[in-house]
Automatic annotation (TrEMBL):
<feature type="domain" description="HTH arsR-type">
    <location>
        <begin position="7"/>
        <end position="103"/>
    </location>
</feature>
<dbReference type="GO" id="GO:0003700">
    <property type="term" value="F:DNA-binding transcription factor activity"/>
</dbReference>
<dbReference type="InterPro" id="IPR011991">
    <property type="entry name" value="ArsR-like_HTH"/>
</dbReference>
<protein>
    <submittedName>
        <fullName>ArsR family transcriptional regulator</fullName>
    </submittedName>
</protein>
<dbReference type="Pfam" id="PF12840">
    <property type="entry name" value="HTH_20"/>
</dbReference>
<dbReference type="InterPro" id="IPR036390">
    <property type="entry name" value="WH_DNA-bd_sf"/>
</dbReference>
<dbReference type="InterPro" id="IPR001845">
    <property type="entry name" value="HTH_ArsR_DNA-bd_dom"/>
</dbReference>
<dbReference type="InterPro" id="IPR036388">
    <property type="entry name" value="WH-like_DNA-bd_sf"/>
</dbReference>
Amino acid sequence: MTDERITSLRATAHPLRLRMLSLLTGSAMSAAEVARELDISHANASYHLRQLLDADLVVVEGEERIRGGVAKRYRYPVDRPEPDPSDNDLSAQVEAMCSELLRRFQLRQPGKGNFTDAELWVTPEIWQQALDLVTRGSMLIHEQAQRPRTKGTIPVNLTVAGFRMEKP
């Protein structure tokens, strides 16, 4: 595994960085904007954005002059293919996702949603159909993501873990 790939996978194994990637899906933002939205310090936001940039998970979409300095605007390019993680890296990512899901669950609104937990046996064809639908839904929500608090939008969560299992 290359050093770049290891850096990329490790960068996503942090709940705060997962939140940043989600945030930067909807629009490019500066470290100060990310800090305000996530209620963290500017220095903390800058540090984690640099980690994501070094891991090639975000891009600098532009720069703007602010009070005599230059602020970079970062964006998460959702159309970029992601590397296949090792089992150790994937375990760390799943742990970060679980932690983040628990945080988001506390923010849920009562009402309609979808909660599914299933360990089932299906044909390979049905599995592929289900996986294709979930992938399409994930791409739709990422492609249509808006800047936080845009008028007419609502905050939502979509956490998906679909995978084939070994036969017992």
